[in-house]
Amino acid sequence: MSKKVLQQRTTKLANSDGATGNQLEQTFSVDDSFLPSPTELSEYKQIDPQIVDLLCRMSENEQKSRHKIEKEKLRIMYKAETRQYRINVWGMLFAFLALLVMMGVTAWALYLDRAWIATLFGVLSATTIIGLFMTPKSLQKDSDKPHDKPSNN
Fold it and tell me: Angle at Cα 142 formed by Cα 88 and Cα 145, nearest 5°?
């Protein structure tokens, strides 16, 4: 039936400053096959000849159930991705429309000879456009950030 194995490996690390530490790597493996090993099956068959057929049917039912669950997970993930895509598209559309309205107000204010309103909306429009092309520091790649030194613990 289900077989579990836990492997651990420890590595001592040191940097150029003389600080040392330990790195622990754990690997947890699970063989979750419903069927027992062939030797166990032969032993079960000696006890009851129909038990092997029963275990095979149970294993098939378990596999069908797992496939059904995996399909449902994929469907849920697909719906979530689709929903996020729609939100992004609608957000970009309304942001573009808002920018067009701001530029329209700027042009209308210039037409009415209201320079201060045109300046205000013109600056807002320009900063919005410039802001779209600037990447915040929090979204930059991790490789650009300096890494912390390991602690002496």
Answer: 125
- Bridge partner list, 101: none
Q: What would the pLDDT profile of 33-87 be if each residue is shown by its tens digit?
A: 777 778 888 888 888 888 888 888 988 898 899 899 999 999 999 999 999 999 9
**Domain extents in the chain:** 3-135
Q: Tell me, rounded to whole angstroms, the distance of Cα 97 from its chain centroid.
A: 31
Question: pTM for this structure?
Answer: 0.47
Q: Classify residue 121 as exposed, middle or buried by CB count within 10 Å of its CB (0-12, 13-18, 19+).
A: buried
Q: Taken in order 130, 136, 142, 144, is the CA torsion positive or negative?
A: positive
In angstroms, the Cα distances linking 66 to 4, 29, 56, 61, 102 are 19, 18, 15, 9, 54
